[in-house]
Amino acid sequence: MMRKRTFALILLLLIAAFPTYAEPVITTGTLKASYEELTLPGNERMGMVELGMTHDFTDNLYLGVGSWMAVRGERGGFITLGLEGGFHYPVTREIEFDTGLYVGAGGGRGGYTLSGGGLMLRTHAGFRYRMASWGWLGAGVSSADFPNGGAIHSVQPFLTFSLPFTSFIENGWGKSEQPSANNQYRRLSPKVHSLALVTRQLNVASTSTTDTGGKQGRLTLLGIEWRTFLDDNCYAKLETEGAAGGASVGYMQILAGAGYRIALTDRLFADVDLSIGGGGGGGVDSGGGLLFDGSAGVQYYLTPHFFADLSAARLKAPDGSFQANTLAVKLGYQTGVNSAERAGFVPASMQIRVVNQSYQQASDLWRAHHATESVDNLGLQVDYFINHDWYITGQGLAAWRGGAGAYMTGLVGSGVRKNLNKSLYLNAEALAGAAGGGGLAMGSGLAWQANAGVGYDLTPSLSALATIGRMEAVNGAFKANVTGLSLAWQFKSHLK
Length: 496
Description:
mainly beta, eight-stranded antiparallel beta barrel, 4% helix, 3 domains, Porin, 16-stranded antiparallel sheet, 496 residues, globular, single chain
């Protein structure tokens, strides 16, 4: 019965999460941050923060994605990724009633005994107040449950802040029409966005210890960074990384922040940024999980779109012993143009995939426990097409069933899509990155995955894809055959 209910909830969000606009439209959405404290067994308290983005698909319905992460208590590294949907109704001109559902997957610090298979269901109801142009401030009551064998069943108050944004959605990948100078879409001209592969070396301070009191060793992190430029200098960023080397497999961090970039030459730039977020796992003593990160670096454009970046940073957990000086190397791709170049810009194609992947045992020692059970993972994959066929991609997945609560993976790579006819296509991709937690034998955390599949365009903007593949740890015993199902929304979007 639980499995049927779980599949029904996920299916409803997957179906609802893809719009079917008949023509380009201007729509609204919000960037949101929320805070609440969950009650764990033994009356332990865990402060959680959500970072998310939602999109208004009707006047009342919103859908989006988010991540809940521990930032207070003793569970640094407890993180879930998921989908969120809800309804908001105006009560007065300045007050709205808001209710919704979050379906996520993940866990951490406590493993499967705390989060079970990893599935998280969260419902909420409350009110939010419009603070003029500053956004929405809200409060209410939520219920968080880990129904697949987890020990968390908590009801608590929450606070939330939402910052509205506007987007110009071109549904599907059809030919774009260049907006005229007087067109209302002109004010939503594309800004600069970039996606980069990140590898970080962490030189941990000598005073840092593990969560059991031992000496904390060095770490190598692998992940991705997304930047959106608010003007020609200021940018917002989101960065997620996991351990791919060192003794702390299972460590993961998600950071959000803002920065400033200046041009030194036509190709060379300098930048500084500050970020805040959550992280932990792998025995790292990050306390409740709250992290601060300050970075400075230089960026060099190898071509008008491809760049390399070198940066130094200070990473610190304020209520844990963990702190480190870091050196990061980034290789990335930039889309969009600066304010002086927008007139001739043609937006590139993108797609967001909601993915379910199932791992089946392919080696005897692939898991430390529940070895005969497959592991189901839920998450998102973002593909950016650099031409008609080839794309670069990043995915984040977390276990929701199979006794692997706390397993998470973040992989990046490239792929190719080849149409066989107007609707049917073949797809292949190769990815590498970090994975760990949940008792899966990932060694240092570095893993690779290859997938091939067949897809079908259900509409000009909605596609279904079935894949088979293989995933292995580079220096661990984990080996798994992988089957996947995904729904993809294909679009072109310009943010303001």
